[in-house]
UniProtKB/TrEMBL annotation:
Family named by the database record: Belongs to the glycosyltransferase 87 family.
One Pfam family hit: GT87
The organism of origin for this protein: Cryobacterium breve
Keyword Transmembrane among UniProt keywords: yes
Matches recorded under InterPro entries: GT87
Annotated compartments: Cell membrane
Swiss-Prot/TrEMBL keywords: Cell membrane, Membrane, Transferase, Transmembrane, Transmembrane helix
Domain of life: Bacteria
Segments traversing the membrane: 72-93, 105-125, 132-151, 258-278, 290-323, 329-349, 361-388, 408-432, 444-469, 489-512
Official protein name in the record: DUF2029 domain-containing protein
Length: 540
């Protein structure tokens, strides 16, 4: 007997299977196609890749499933990403912090617009499902990142120092041995980093250019025009960073300007996006959270346009986390050591990885760190410390003036003690409470708290925080890089204090909201929750 026709395609397919007629051959396909449309909330199973399903009344009040075409939502997200890429390119070409008598208001407004587009795109991504998520996240990472390469660095001159260290290293000279102003390095100077002085109408020789600073050579005292900052002091960067700089310059030569490091930053940032997507899929984390890294304006600005070496530290740190959670403790320790030997700050990610087999991670990290330093110590001796002690003093970390909030209650040198105690307590809590299989929440708390306590005036330090915001889905911590970005663009201590205090309040409120009910039990019980609650498994 033939199956009776039905207005419901799934019912038709099932009857076809039972009857054994010709329709049975396509019944399985029909069921797979239609189940998501009629049952969008089936746990762990099929879903509509184009968006949610609504119900409407037809045929005398009967309820019937109607698909909201998610292609519209995908199109809107794509347009927002295109707008973000366009605005990123515009901001790089139109605004920088090096123009004489500059007005930072347009740059601040443009940056605010980028963060707004980012927020809207992430919110709309919640309604996208399936492969479209991966495609959008990767496309946005590539598109916005490529747009960030259209011009030279616009808020930092650090990449000029990276290029110079690489040029010196490829010449077989330790970058820790001489300052950039040393006369003995004259033969290595490319014109784009050290342009010749120009004669003015009065016959005086002057350094001309937005990024060009005036200095003097150490021995002869001759005028030196340089795109580098701090030409009178040795480099500050650890050995893994110096190897990276030398590798880039070995491939491109000394005359390529800013684009080699920008291209490398793009490759590293997109690679991090891919690493997050794969790691999230394997660990059952919503892949839409990867957009919190891939589309973030801070990544485009600081990892690509300004090419900060922190990006390499992020790659090593994230790889170490995935290795350790995969029970590969020695390998994770080796990679963590490389991360710390890139920019020191990745050491903040270590406490959350010490709960299980922590001694292996520690020994591996320390061994790698020391091995990377050995060649430079043999050639330069104690000079490998570079300008680090002077940098800490210059930034106000010795006398406590750099701590935006702590300095209100503990002025002067006492702020250093208070900050050290707070960081030590947080580190102990992170080690005690972190789930060793999913340590990213502990790393988020450790790194984010350190940034809030130390309140550096360099927003690129927050690059290390972003992957752990993505892995944990705790979007409220994005207020930390936003506060540091504001501090960089508008160097006002009162405004910085308001921004950091606001971030702390929002983070605390959201943390309490996520933890209820049973917050007391969560605080007293070792091990933070492994994954966000079901209600938290959406971006936004």
């Amino acid at each position: 007997m033939k199956a009776m026709p039905s207005r419901r395609p799934i019912t038709t397919a099932i009857r076809g299977l039972r009857a054994g007629d010709a329709s049975a051959r396509c019944a399985s396909y029909i069921i797979r196609l239609m189940v998501p449309l009629h049952h969008p909330g089936v746990s762990g199973g099929l879903f509509n890749p184009y968006g949610p399903v609504t119900r409407t009344r037809v045929d005398g009040g009967r309820m019937r499933g109607v698909r909201q075409d998610g292609r519209v939502r995908i199109a809107v997200v794509s347009l927002l990403l295109a707008a973000s890429a366009a605005l990123t390119a515009f901001s790089v070409l139109a605004y920088d912090l090096f123009k004489p008598g500059r007005d930072t208001v347009p740059l601040v407004l443009c940056t605010a617009g980028l963060w707004l587009l980012f927020a809207l795109a992430v919110l709309l991504l919640r309604g996208v499902r399936g492969r479209a998520v991966v495609v959008l996240v990767l496309a946005g990472s590539v598109g916005i990142g490529a747009a960030a390469m259209v011009g030279p660095p616009n808020t930092s001159t650090d990449s000029a120092r990276y290029a110079w260290d690489g040029i010196v290293s490829t010449a077989g000279i330790s970058p820790y041995a001489y300052t950039p102003a040393d006369d003995r390095l004259d033969a290595l100077r490319p014109d784009w980093l050290f342009p010749a002085p120009e004669l003015t109408e009065s016959g005086k020789r002057e350094c001309v250019g937005e990024r060009i600073q005036t200095a003097q050579k150490t021995e002869s005292g001759d005028l030196l025009c340089s795109a580098l900052n701090r030409t009178g002091v040795p480099t500050i960067y650890p050995p893994a960073a110096e190897i990276y700089f030398a590798g880039v310059r070995a491939l491109t030569g000394p005359n390529a300007e800013y684009w080699p490091l920008q291209l490398t930053g793009l490759l590293l940032s997109v690679g991090t996006t891919g690493m997050l997507l794969v790691g999230m899929r394997r660990r059952g984390i919503d892949q839409r959270f990867a957009a919190l890294w891939a589309w973030c304006p801070l990544v485009a600005t600081e990892a690509i346009t300004n090419s900060h070496v922190d990006m390499l530290g992020v790659v090593f740190t994230l790889a170490a986390v995935f290795l350790v959670t995969g029970r590969r403790y020695w390998s994770g320790g080796f990679v963590l050591g490389a991360a710390i030997a890139t920019k020191l700050i990745p050491v903040l990610a270590a406490p959350a990885m010490l709960r299980r087999q922590g001694w292996k991670v520690t020994v591996g990290a320390v061994a790698t760190f020391l091995i990377l330093y050995v060649p430079y110590v043999l050639s330069t001796g104690i000079g490998v410390l570079g300008y680090l002690p002077g940098y800490l003093s210059e930034e106000g970390y010795e006398d406590g003036t750099r701590f935006a909030l702590i300095s209100l209650i503990a002025p002067g040198g006492s702020a250093v003690i208070v900050a050290a105690v707070l960081l030590a307590v947080i580190a102990v809590l992170v080690i005690w409470k972190t789930d060793p299989d999913q340590p990213w929440l502990g790393q988020l708390v450790m790194i984010g708290s350190a940034l809030l306590i130390l309140s550096p005036r360099y927003s690129w330090y927050a690059l290390l925080l972003l992957p752990f915001i993505a892995l944990s889905g705790r979007w409220e911590w994005l207020l930390v890089p936003m506060a540091l970005t504001l501090r960089l663009l508008v160097p006002s201590i009162p405004l910085t204090r308001v921004a950091i205090a606001t971030a702390i309040v929002v983070i605390v409120v959201m943390s309490i909201h996520r933890a209820r009910p049973g917050i007391a039990q969560r605080v007293l019980r070792p091990g933070w929750s492994k994954v966000p609650e079901p209600g938290d498994q959406t971006v936004g």
